[in-house]
Design brief:
It is an enzyme of class 6 (ligase). Its main location: cytoplasm. It catalyses: tRNA(Arg) + L-arginine + ATP = L-arginyl-tRNA(Arg) + AMP + diphosphate. This is Arginine--tRNA ligase. GO terms for molecular function: ligase activity. The two termini are about 35 Å apart. The strands form 4 sheets. A 4-stranded parallel beta sheet has the order 5-4-9-10, with helices on both faces. It has 21 helices and 13 strands. By secondary structure, the protein is an alpha/beta fold. A hairpin with a 2-residue loop joins β2 and β3. α7 packs across α9. The protein is globular. Helix content is about 55%, strand content about 10%.
C-alpha cells in the first residue's frame, strides 16, 4: 500500500479536485518528529488559489477530509498532519513482508534488460590492494540491486592485462627474478620486481628503453615475451580468485584489455569512414569541441593506440554481445573526463546507445590520510586486511559467545562483511580513511552491528518456540511504530538506490532499521504470553527478513547466531 498516495487522494477529494493529485503527492512531506504525524501537507501552495492565509486553509481542510483510515488528522499552523491508523498499517506491512519473504522489495522495472558492469579490474602481476575494494564491492552491490529490480546484470572484470607495464615487468624479471621465487610466492614477488624497477630506473633511465623493447616484442607475438606474459596472467588470476572467493564475489567475464587487441583496427576504420579522425602534431584525434571536451587522442605519433581506443572497442563489443539497456563503469572519480570523452566519441560515431553508458565514479580510500600507491610500494593488501578483520571478529565473538557453533565460519562472515559494509555505508563519491579497529566493532554504525541485530531477532524467535501466524497482525504499540514505518519503506528505498546507483542508501537504511528495532526491543517486552504475542513476533521476524535482504544486496552475509 502506498500510504503517501492515500494521503494525496484524501486531500484532492477534500479540495473537490482543485489540485492535481501528482502536484499534491510531490508536496507531501514526512515530518522529522513523530508527534507531528506520519505525513504532512503544507497549505502554502493553496494560498493564491483560495485567497486565504495558509493557517486558515489548514483548519478548513481538516474539516473537509474524510478521516476514515487515519488515527487522526489535525492542523498545526499551515500544515495538515496525518496520523496513520497503526493497527491497519501494521497488519498490512507485516503480512506483506512475511508473505513475500525474501522477495519483499522485488520489482520488475528492468524488464530483463541486460546491464554489463565494468568493475574491479585489477592489473595483472600486481596484488589486489585496498585500492581495488571500492570498485569491486560497489559493482557487486549494484549488480545485486539491479537483479532485485528485474535487470540482468553482467559482471565484467576488465583485467589490466596489457600495456607498457608488462615490458617493465619482463625486464625486471629478466634482471632480478627467478622462476622458483615466483612459483613460491607469485604476486608478492612480481610486485617486488615491479617496485624495484621504478626505483632503479630513476638512476638508470636506459631501463625504460629495454622495457619498451620487451613490450614491442610482446605486441609482435615474440615467443618468450608471450610465455612470460601468459604465466604472469595465470598466476595472478589464481591469486585474484582466492580473494574474490573470500569476498563472496563472482564474475561473468574476465575479458580484459588484451581481449580487445584485435578489435581496435575496426574502431580506427569506423572513425576514418566517418571522417572523424584529424591529425594534430603527428597524432590522430577526434575533435570534441562541441562537447566542451579536450580532443580524444586515438593514435599516438608512433601509431600506438590508447586506452580510449580500447574502451571504444569494448563498448561496441558489449553492445553487440549483450544489447544492453545500460552499461555501467564502476571506475574512480579521476576518470570522469575519460568517460565523457568515450561517450562523446561514440555519439559522434552515430551510436545513440552511448546515452545508456553511465560512469559510476567513487572517492578514494586513504590510509592515515595518504593515497595508496603500488608504484611507490605504499600498498595495503586486501587479502591481509580481510584476514585481520576475520581475526578481530573472532576475538570479539570469543569474548561475547565462547560456545558459538561454527565460530570460524561466523567470524569470516562478520570480518569480511564488516569491511564490505564499511565501504558501502559511505556515499560512493566521498573519500574516507580506513581504520580496521573502527570497522569491525559490534557497536556503532558498522556491519557487525546490523548482523548482530539480525542475529538477536533470530534468537528471540528461537527462544519463543512459536510459529508466527500471518493473520491478525494489528500491533498498536507506539514503541513499534518507527520500526514498522522503516519496514514499509524498504521497497521504495531499493528503487532509490537503483535510480541513484548508490548502495549507501541500503547500508544507511539497514543501520536505521537495526537501531529502531533495538530501541523497540529495549522498551517493549516481546515474549509476554498475551493477545499481541503473535503480532510482536511477526514484527521480529519481519525485521530479520528485511535485514537479511538488505545485507545480501550489499554482498554481506547474515549469520543467525553471533
Amino acid at each position: 500500500m502506498n500510504y503517501k498516495k492515500q494521503v494525496a487522494q484524501s486531500i484532492v477529494d477534500a479540495l473537490d479536485n482543485q489540485l492535481d493529485e501528482q502536484v499534491v503527492y510531490e508536496k507531501i512531506e514526512v515530518p522529522k518528529a513523530t508527534n507531528l504525524g506520519d505525513y504532512a501537507f503544507p497549505t502554502f501552495v493553496l494560498a493564491k488559489t483560495l485567497h486565504k492565509a495558509p493557517q486558515m486553509i489548514a483548519k478548513d481542510l481538516v474539516e473537509q477530509i474524510n478521516k476514515s483510515g487515519y488515527e487522526k488528522v489535525e492542523a498545526q499552523g499551515p500544515y495538515v498532519n496525518f496520523f496513520l491508523d497503526k493497527g491497519t498499517f501494521s497488519n498490512e506491512v507485516l503480512q506483506t513482508v512475511l508473505t513475500q519473504n525474501s522477495h519483499y522489495g522485488d520489482a520488475t522495472i528492468g524488464n530483463n534488460g541486460k546491464v554489463p558492469i565494468d568493475m574491479s579490474s585489477p592489473n595483472i602481476a600486481k596484488p589486489i590492494s585496498m585500492g581495488h575494494l571500492r570498485s569491486t564491492v560497489i559493482g557487486n552491490s549494484l549488480a545485486n540491486l539491479l537483479s532485485k529490480t528485474g535487470y540482468q546484470p553482467v559482471k565484467i572484470n576488465h583485467l589490466g592485462d596489457w600495456g607498457t607495464q608488462f615490458g617493465k615487468l619482463i625486464e625486471a624479471y629478466k634482471l632480478w627474478g627467478s622462476e622458483e621465487e615466483v612459483k613460491a610466492d607469485p604476486i608478492n614477488k612480481l610486485l617486488e620486481y615491479y617496485v624495484r624497477f621504478h626505483k632503479e630506473d630513476q638512476k638508470h633511465p636506459e631501463l625504460d628503453d629495454e622495457a619498451r623493447k620487451w613490450f614491442k616484442k610482446l605486441e609482435d607475438g615474440d615467443k618468450e615475451a608471450t610465455e612470460l606474459w601468459q604465466w604472469f596472467r595465470s598466476v595472478s588470476l589464481k591469486s585474484f580468485k582466492r580473494i574474490y572467493d573470500k569476498l563472496g564475489i563472482t564474475f561473468d567475464s574476465y575479458k580484459g584489455e588484451a581481449f580487445y587487441n584485435d578489435k581496435m583496427d575496426e574502431v580506427v576504420q569506423l572513425l576514418e569512414d566517418k571522417n572523424l579522425l584529424k591529425e594534430s602534431q603527428g597524432a590522430e584525434i577526434v575533435d570534441l569541441d562541441k562537447y566542451n571536451l579536450n580532443p580524444a587522442l586515438i593514435k599516438k605519433t608512433d601509431g600506438a593506440t590508447l586506452y580510449i581506443t580500447r574502451d571504444l572497442a569494448a563498448a561496441i563489443y558489449r553492445k553487440r554481445t549483450y544489447d544492453f539497456v545500460q552499461s555501467l563503469y564502476v571506475v574512480g572519480a579521476e576518470q570522469i573526463n575519460h568517460f565523457k570523452q568515450l561517450k562523446a566519441v561514440l555519439k559522434e560515431m552515430g551510436f545513440d546507445w552511448s546515452d545508456n553508458i553511465h560512469h559510476i565514479p567513487f572517492g578514494l580510500i586513504t590510509l592515515n590520510g595518504k593515497k595508496l600507491s603500488t608504484r611507490s610500494g605504499r600498498v595495503v593488501l586486501l587479502d591481509k586486511v580481510l584476514d585481520d578483520a576475520i581475526d578481530l571478529a573472532k576475538q570479539q565473538i570469543q569474548s561475547k559467545n565462547p560456545d558459538l557453533k561454527d565460530a570460524d565460519k561466523v567470524a569470516h562472515e562478520v570480518g569480511v562483511g564488516a569491511v564490505i559494509f564499511h565501504d558501502l555505508k559511505n556515499e560512493r563519491m566521498n573519500s574516507f580513511d580506513f581504520d580496521l579497529s573502527e570497522v569491525v566493532r559490534f557497536e556503532g554504525e558498522t556491519g557487525p552491528y546490523v548482523q548482530y541485530t539480525r542475529a538477536r531477532a533470530e534468537s528471540i524467535l528461537r527462544k519463543s518456540d512459536h510459529k508466527v501466524k500471518i493473520t491478525d497482525l494489528n500491533l498498536a504499540d507506539p514503541n513499534a511504530w518507527e520500526t514498522l514505518k522503516f519496514l514499509q519503506a524498504f521497497p521504495e528505498t531499493i528503487l532509490r538506490a537503483v535510480k541513484e546507483y548508490e548502495p549507501s542508501v541500503i547500508a544507511k537504511y539497514a543501520l536505521h532499521l537495526a537501531k529502531s528495532f533495538n530501541q523497540y526491543y529495549a522498551n517493549s517486552k516481546v515474549l509476554v504470553e498475551d493477545d499481541d504475542l503473535n503480532a510482536r513476533l511477526a514484527l521480529v521476524q519481519s525485521v530479520s527478513v528485511v535485514l537479511e535482504i538488505a545485507l545480501s544486496l550489499l554482498g554481506v552475509q547474515a549469520p543467525s547466531e553471533m
